[in-house]
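Forwarding the complex inputs:
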Amino acid sequence: MSTDSMFVHKMWVDHELSKMTTSKTIPFPMLSDPGGRVGQIYGVYDPAGGVDVRGRFIIDPDGVVQGFEVLTPPVGRNVLESIRQIQAFQVVRESKGSKATPSGWKPGKQVLEPSPALVGNVWNVWKVGQAFD
Amino acid sequence: MTEEMAAGCTRPVAEVGETPAEPSLPKEKTSVHQGGKTMIQVGQKAPDFTAPAYFQGKFTSVSLSAHLGKWVVLCFYPGDFTFV
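Prediction (whole assembly, two chains):
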């Protein structure tokens, strides 16, 4: 979503984005937010520049924001990290809160199961190195 | 998913509002205010909106609330034809 009109979105797809993908179309809707009205309520509208800056919001099936990040324009998003976060939120959601994904978690790695017995004992079951491997 | 929109000559704008809710439900806080600037809060409802869009060769209209039941990644970016 950007402050560009849907007309400019069409031209960008036709003239550039379609050359960056094997299909001619982009697989998600490109929304138009002229004047930054949506960006304003999400906290990403920059009035000085008149544009929405690079915000990303992960919203769950109940419509609840689970995570977000906002970057200055020169730095692009890490799509793989967005996917990892969605997968983590899905694990937590499916466990109905009985599981947590510790730092560095990705699919296949160890989850934690919070309980009174785990208080003061995380060090016994999880090593700091797991955050980096 | 998306409803088709006639392509007119004026630029459509987005509509911003609360997600429709049962009258008996308490009004939920969707954001916190910090020095006059609104910021989203995790764990709270994402504000609903309806915005015009371009999708698979058509001009359409997209509402966030139409995607309830699915995970949504809502991405904002500064502009088309910019570099990152």
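The mean pLDDT of chain B is 79.
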